[in-house]
Amino acid sequence: MRRAIGLFVLTRHACRGMSTLTSRKGVTLLGQEAAIALDVDLMESPGFSIDQLMELAGLSVACAVRDAYPAADGILIVAGPGNNGGDGLVAARHLWHFGARNVRVVYPKRPSKPLFRNLVKQCEDLRIPVEDAMPDTAGFDVVLDAVFGFSFYGEPRAPFDEILRDLERTSTPLVSVDTPSGWHVEDGPTGPVKLAPDVLVSLTAPKKCASHFAGRHYVGGRFVPPRVAEKYGLELPPYPGASQILELPNWGS
Hints:
Elements: E1 20-22, E2 28-30, H1 32-42, H2 50-68, E3 74-79, H3 83-97, E4 102-106, H4 114-125, E5 130-131, E6 142-146, H5 160-169, E7 174-177, E8 199-203, E9 216-220, H6 226-231, E10 245-248
């Protein structure tokens, strides 16, 4: 999907006390506090469960990877220990169902929660290898960075410090989920590892760090109800038809 669709705006007054920043493209980017608060609102009880949001987010990621690289068959998913990693596991399953048969997952730190164990089992049922060690990324068509999300701060610890250095050096096309791993969620690539993804898939809404990104930029996560959109002043983009994603036009220009 390459159509240019109208964008959304998050007004400043809707999130008093939460940092937001309007980019030159007229798209409002969420700061860390606002992104966390929006997620909390989505998961209030009754509301969405974490597995529902993860499934929808991972489906959006898979759709974006397929749109950006329609011929890719060898896809390496590098999953972290949190919800971003869960999004990557969901994306791996959907990419297999979309026709990619050389899908592999690197998942060195596996949470014990049933949600994550189930996601691993779902991949294994499709004969998708789920491994601890990083392979040579040169053997793949695309690498998906699903290591750290918007709640991450500080410097990566082992084994992810070395994994991110591998991703920093790779010449294989790199897609990041929501925020490039190792980037400060608001200030961008300020840490020791500076990934340079070719594609960014922002979930629900782009984060502040997206202002430092110059590649192809998709937004996904078509699940925000009107009450949450109104609370944060969100005007969500009109996704075309039944699509789960849209590409934000000319982001890097």
